[in-house]
Amino acid sequence: MTMRFDAVVSVRFLQSAEGGRRTDIVGQVYACPLFVAGRVFDCRVLLQEGRAVLGESYELPVAFLFPEDALAVANVGEGVSLWEGRTIARGRILRVAWRRLQE
């Protein structure tokens, strides 16, 4: 299965003492809501190393379930957060899909 990515984000996963998860995320694809520009979007994030360690920063490709809606507000430099009943990571959008740039 080939995934199509809509954006790349740079995020730092919060440690449990900061209100983040209790354990690292393990797996290749992580599904979670992503907040951007005051809105929330369902997404899939590719963990290229198969793990996200709490307290560490990563550049991660993101696929939105409804990319047309998300890319309408997702701009380079915009703040984002990943959510799992609480904020588990914060960061910024680094790049958006080529089709967004051509609109």
What order do the helices and strands follow?
Answer: EEEEEEHEEH
Look at the structure and give the mean pLDDT. 91
The level-1 CATH class: Mainly Beta
Number of strands: 8
What share of the residues does DSSP label as strand, in percent?
Answer: over 45%
CATH topology: Elongation Factor Tu (Ef-tu), domain 3
Name of the CATH homologous superfamily: Translation factors
**Spatial strand sequence of the major β-sheet:** 1-6-4-3-7-8
Distance between the termini: 27 Å
Question: How is the main sheet built?
Answer: 6 strands, antiparallel, barrel
Q: Any idea what the CATH architecture is?
A: Beta Barrel
Could you name the ranges where pLDDT drops below 50 across 5 or more consecutive residues?
Answer: none
What is the count of DSSP helices, taking H or I runs of 4+ residues? 2
Shape descriptor:
globular
Q: What is the SS-derived class?
A: mainly beta
Report the helical percentage: under 10%
- Overall domain count: 1
Q: How many whole angstroms does the radius of gyration measure?
A: 13 Å
Fold and architecture overview:
This protein has 103 residues and is mainly beta. The chain has one domain (7-102): Beta Barrel (Elongation Factor Tu (Ef-tu), domain 3). The chain contains two helices and eight strands; from the N terminus they run ββββββαββα. The chain has helices spanning 67-71, 98-102; strands at residues 7-13, 25-26, 29-36, 39-46, 51-52, 57-64, 79-83, 87-96. It has a six-stranded antiparallel β-barrel. β3 and β4 (39-46) form a beta hairpin. It is globular. It starts with 6 loop residues before the first strand and ends with a helix. The mean pLDDT is 91.
